[in-house]
Amino acid sequence: MALAALFVAATKLAGVLVTVTVAANAFSFARYRRRHLRPLRSPIDESADVLAAFDVHHDSEEEHGFFFGLATAPAHVEDRLDDAWLQFAEQHPCGDMELKQKQQPVDALMASAAGDGGSQQVSLATDEPLKTAKRQTRRPIKIAMEAMIRGFEKYSDGEEHHSSPECSHAVAAWHNVPHPQERLRFWSDPDTELKLAKDTGVSVFRMGIDWARIMRKEPVKGLKDSVNFAALERYRWIIERVRFYGMKVMLTLFHHSLPPWAGDYGGWKVEKTVDYFMDFTRLVVDRVSDLVDYWVIFNEPHVFVMLTYCAGAWPGGHPDMIEVAMSALPTGVFNQALHWMAQAHSKAYDYIHEESKSSKKPIVGVAHHVSFTRPYGLFDVAAVTLANSLTLFPYVDSICNKLDFIGINYYGQEVISGPGLKLVENDEYSESGRGVYPDGLYHILLQFHERYKHLNLPFIITENGISDETDLIRRPYLLEHLLAVYAATIMGVPVLGYLFWTTSDNWEWADGYGPKFGLVAVDRANDLARKPRPSYYLFSKLNFRW
């Protein structure tokens, strides 16, 4: 009898705990919806009014007003660049499988922090035996971390899979396109891209300088034997071309491109990388600062760290199982690498302000990737809270006193269910699986403004775009996100400008040439011929209206 009574009591207790848990999650979910999921109230009703909503300026001497721009990066567009990304793409698919495996589709998702060009869509493959073969060749820890960071991969190498399911390339949609190593020939022929940008009427062009092109090897014996001064002069000439076309320059110093030699010793996991990065920063600032209007020191640092050192999905990482398992701890590789990047940012910020040769005060910031994350159901609020606690504010908090603006890279939303992501029926997605949610940009801007308004920091949308080869989604995507920006400004958020990603279709990190983010299509089989899409002309209309 005593045992039966104990069993009944335990059952009652379990029932009470379940009831309390459900009630607590229901309360948290309702509170989250009330605080974060209120729909955007449109301040204007017609798309034509969007075009007139911004006080845009084109005068190069004008300091106030809203600007439009276009953004890109060296690894996306520069030919004749033997960087870590090219080496990563060209590595033999049947080499060291532990380090060189391509990221394949996965069945479950844990969270996401994919930056520009990141894919989040279910694979198109349908051959079930082949899927099984792929799964058998994957390391469980890599599957988990890949799921956490990248999401679903869409872009595959097609015939490569059928010839050898155990061999796959590190970069999808790269070997099966014409002239992949030429990217967009921005190094040898920048004018083609710059003229396309200029003809949209934008006033700012965002580009970067590749660290590995300037510093060809580790400067263990000083800079004399490691620096390519001719490349530095070429970059100065390219920046002069940007200004020739009447555009201001936003220059990025680190855009997901770690020199191969730095990756060999551990990169941003090691303190000496701070010193090497400062060597690079001093070279760039001393040579081109008189031509630069805006500086971005790091692009999406937490995305780089996660995909490189936690997932091993990008070149230069190679994490082992223990390192991955401990990565999110305070002393783990994630926080360790971000710490050294924050140190480098602070030092670079000071050097730019002290040594810039520009006649105007330098404007220095960060391009911070943010996705709007929301829970799928009652029990997913905790997962959203955890994901945001790692990626939303910590890095910006660590450098907020060394910023002149906060750059926001926003592509869409992620719905979290359990340990992963949920593709929600009837929600709108880009071709690469990114959830389309313009209201999220509005909410993100309000969140960041509330957190940092005591510092009086303005914002720049440093990246916003969509993978859409058909160009059917891109046009409303553009207008709706501009509407979100305008709504945020009405609420008091100081937004200086908006840069669209990107001018022409280009190499999108580990997805290769699969995603089509460009306002302009590129015919790689026809000498990289450009063909502007309808969205190109809409974007031009935005700029030329004034």
From TrEMBL:
The chain crosses the membrane at residues 6-30, 482-501. Coiled coil: none annotated. One of its GO terms (molecular function) is beta-glucosidase activity. GO terms for biological process: carbohydrate metabolic process. It holds the Pfam family Glyco_hydro_1. Residues 114-136 are annotated as: Disordered. Gene3D superfamilies: Glycosidases. The active site is at 463 (nucleophile). Keywords: Glycosidase, Hydrolase, Membrane, Transmembrane, Transmembrane helix. Belongs to the glycosyl hydrolase 1 family. This is Beta-glucosidase-like SFR2, chloroplastic isoform X4. The gene is LOC105039984.
